[in-house]
Backbone:
């Protein structure tokens, strides 16, 4: 039964990712980083070192992906500040793992929650008909991934990848 549930969950996540705009992709990463931080805390409390290490490793990878997707050239100080915050959170996750403490996990969860709420507000604001009505449009546009993925032209009210 659990195997079928896992397959359904993975299929749902894959569909969600394929249909997501860039802002929603960021939110998905935050969501899963939060899940892994919460898992790490639960494993820490259970004394499950292997489970905690796996959850911390996944959270570290997600934060690395978030940092790697920043466009520093276009994002200016905002993307640099986010990069420093991601680095700080990675350090706190490592500290939590090495020292077997939950306080750093709590801090990272709080920071991720705040960032997730901010991106949710941005996504809500981008649902407006025109980008000019969104005060964050020009700043957030510069934070979108600058990976080697093909550049796609979007209408002005949408985000560019």
Residues:
């Amino acid at each position: 039964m659990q195997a079928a549930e896992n397959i359904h969950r993975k299929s749902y996540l894959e569909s969600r990712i394929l249909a997501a705009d860039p802002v929603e992709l960021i939110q998905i990463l935050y969501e899963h980083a939060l899940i892994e931080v919460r898992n790490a805390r639960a494993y820490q409390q259970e004394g499950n070192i292997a489970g905690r290490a796996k959850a911390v490793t996944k959270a570290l990878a997600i934060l690395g992906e978030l940092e790697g997707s920043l466009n520093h050239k276009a994002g200016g100080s905002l993307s640099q500040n986010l990069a420093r915050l991601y680095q700080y959170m990675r350090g706190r996750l490592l500290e939590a793992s090495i020292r077997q403490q939950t306080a750093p996990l709590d801090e990272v969860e709080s920071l991720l929650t705040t960032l997730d709420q901010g991106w949710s507000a941005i996504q809500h604001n981008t649902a407006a008909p025109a980008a000019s009505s969104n005060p964050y449009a020009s700043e957030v546009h510069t934070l979108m991934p600058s990976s080697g993925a093909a550049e796609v032209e979007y209408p002005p009210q949408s985000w560019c990848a």
